[in-house]
Structure formats: C-alpha cells, structure tokens
Design brief:
The protein is an alpha/beta fold and 265 residues long. It has one domain: Ribonuclease Z/Hydroxyacylglutathione hydrolase-like (Metallo-beta-lactamase, Chain A, 4-Layer Sandwich), CATH 3.60.15. The protein is 28% helix and 26% strand. The chain has helices at residues 33-42, 60-63, 66-73, 81-87, 150-155, 170-175, 180-187, 195-205, 225-238; strands at residues 2-8, 15-20, 24-27, 52-54, 77-79, 99-101, 107-110, 113-119, 128-134, 137-142, 161-165, 212-216, 249-252, 259-264. Strands 6-5-4-3-2-1-14 form a 7-stranded mixed sheet. The chain has a 7-stranded mixed sheet with strand order 7-8-9-10-11-12-13, with helices on one face. The mean pLDDT is 97.
Amino acid sequence: MIEICMLASGSSGNAIYVATQHVKILVDAGLSGKRIASALTAIGTEASALDALLLSHDHNDHTCGAGIMSRRYGLPVYATAPTWQVAGKKMGPIPADRCHRLPSCGTITFGDLTVETIPIPHDAADPVGFIFRCEERAIALVTDLGHVTPYIQERLQAMDCLVMEANHDEEMLINGTYPWPLKNRILGKNGHLSNATVAECLCKLISPQTQHVVLAHISEHNNLPQLAFDTVCLRLKEAGHLKQGKQLTVRVADRYLPSCHIQLA
C-alpha cells in the first residue's frame, strides 16, 4: 500500500504527505510548522510520526517550514547539495546528523518505500521531481517545471498516479497584472507549465495502469481550479483517456487545505 495527500499546493506554500505501511514522508515544507502539523492531524496522522523530509528545491514556498519541522520533530532533511547551499541558511540551524544529501538523479530507500529523483527544468538550484514506489505501485510527483523534457517523459511512464502542475492559463497570465519580466519567467523553459501544456503531456503519459491524475500548484492570479480541470479533462476526453468504463480520476489540489488523499493498494 502507498498513499499520497496534498497538504497544500501553490505559491502560498507546498507540502505533500507520502506513506506506506511502514514509512511516513513529508515532501516539501512550504508552510509554517503549525500548519503542517494541523494538516497532518486532519488526515489522521501526526508530525511526530514522520520519518523524513524531502525537499524538491530551494524556493521559499517549498522550504520555509523545513527548519522548524526538523528541529521540533527531530526530522532528517534530504536535499540536493545545491539546494542545501541556497536554502540551508534560510532554514536555520539543523544538526549535522539530520542533514542528508539527496541525489539529483538517483534512488534512495526508506524501509519499504523507494524514492527516485528526477532532474527537472526550473529556475532553482538543482530542482528535482520524485517517483515513489512500493511493491507494484508507483506515484510521480513533478511540479515547478518549465517544460517536459524527453527524459522526464520517459521516466514518468507506467505510473499509477501522476501529480503534475497546471500552474496557469496562458491567456489569463498574458492579460493579467503581473509585470512582463515575471510573465516571461513563468512562460519560460525554466518556469511553470500551463493548463494546455500539462494536458498534452498527460495524453502521452497516461497508460492502462494510471488510476489518478492530480493537478497541482494552481496559480492564485493566473488560473482557476475549474478552468484547469476543464482544460485537462477536455483534452483527455479527446484523446480517449476519459470515457465510460475507464477508471481514471482527475482532481485539483487545494491551495490551503489537505486534498486529493489517494491510497493505492
């Protein structure tokens, strides 16, 4: 058994819970320690039961609560060397025996959970996505990427659950109030995926094994949850992935509250 729950998702803060029968992992800690603990309690677990914290990259919406989570709960933190270099000081003092190196492209094992890291294109220090495997089940968690490389596409085949960002609607972003340098950053190859782009990508990734799709990191100003959902679902229907008799669910992660709690037996 493997499960995943989006505790919060978006530029306001990101945190994801991944667990098996024997291991409980927190991925990213872009919220206060109090909010993360409350979110975990809301889904029936406790922060004190966590075994490790993995950081995808150094941006504050993924790391601002990492230091307090480690100090308060004795939690070991795993990040790539460049992520430590950029985010380490911002996280405050963490005992050396709790600071661990995460490979940018490799595998690490926690009990019955195998974690594979994938290098992704984003304007951060050596950012990574993750594939979580337990027995025959696999979950991919890939957000904060400007484009999907052939390597990423190859690695994300045959997933039971795909968690990917649908950050923005291009028209809303272009016509919105963000300054043009920020718009260009989001639209760039190291920025974020649009609804339309992730829809096309999912058409190439969904297989008969895929049961769940979660759309994450929805922009507060340049997207709408329903718009992301409708855009992706329409394209998946056109491609034949969403039809009667086919067991595939599409969900949108909530910005502030635990959502998309998925269990794969």
